[in-house]
Structures are given as C-alpha cells and as structure tokens.
Amino acid sequence: MMVEIQNDQYANKDIDTEQVEGASEVKEHQQDLIEEAGEPLEEYSVEDVPALLQELEETRAKANEYLDGWQRARAEFTNYKKRIEREQAQIYQTVTGNIIKQYMEITDDFERALSNKPLGSDGAEWANGVDLIYRKLLAILQNEGVVRMDAQGQVFDPNLHEAITSEESDTYKSGEIIEVLQPGYMIGNRVLRPAMVRVAK
Hints:
single chain; alpha+beta; 3-stranded mixed β-sheet
C-alpha cells in the first residue's frame, strides 16, 4: 500500500508504510540501547584510530606484565611450599632418629640374648617370648622408616660403616666387610647408626 506524504522534505514522493514503520522501530531500539547503557555511546572518528591502537597496545603490555608477575608469584609460592615440606620432613626424621637411637642398644641386647637361647623346654618357651618382643620392636622401628643395613660382604663405605679392625682374609677381597660386629641402621637417606665391621685388607 502506498501513501502520499505532504511536507516540505518529502513532497510528492510515495513511501512504503512498512519502511516507515521499520525505520521507526530501529530508532526506538537504538534509544533503548542507549538508555540501558546509561550514557550515550561514544563516537570516534578516523583520526582517533592511532591513539586507540596505542592505548590498546599499552593495555596489552600491562596485562602481560600482570600475568608474568602472577606466574612468578605462583612459582615462588610453589617452591616455598616444597621447601617447607622438605624442611618439615627433615625435622621429623631428625627428631624421630634421635628418639629411636636410644632403642638401638635394646635391639642389640635382644639379639645377644636370642643368640644364646636355652635348650631346655622351659627355656625355649621363654626364648620364644623374648623373640616375639624383639620382633614387635623391629616392626615398630620399620613403621617409623628405620631400615637395618645389610653390610655383610659389602664394600666398606666410611659414610655407612665404622671399621673396628682391618685384617688379612683369604675369603674376602680387599675392602670388603668380613663381619658385622654391630648392625647399622638408616632412617630415610640418613644414617641413624653406622655399622661396626671388620674389613679385609
């Protein structure tokens, strides 16, 4: 349907009413968007483009700087957390080792007592009870991370062993451990007590 509009600007021109209604709706929608934004949309000219690009680059540079700082801070915190955990583990091992060291002589006494078990029936029963107590003590030590060294026949290591004597041997090569006189113990990577040994020359 065509209508004729009588005014100075559109005189004697035929306009589609649907176009007029559509343009009106677009204008109303634009006005709604402006009202929702709370302020009119800022308009930029072509001359503003270089300044806007420079501002964008500065904003990106700041964002990258903040990201790098955050990543460094995160890495430093992770390293700090790991260092604290290592220190706590070392402190725990030291304290535990100092306490357990006091029981090493007790295990030695048990081993000496059990090496001379009585042969009689009554004595054998008593020895079995002592052996049970000894095994419970070893289980407690193992639960705390204490490991007995297997030094017999190994090459002498001054970091792990303490040589009591050095003697000639036809069975063992020079530097090998002939006999363990007192067992050594470790807790983690730390020597709790070095093994006392006889070493072949």
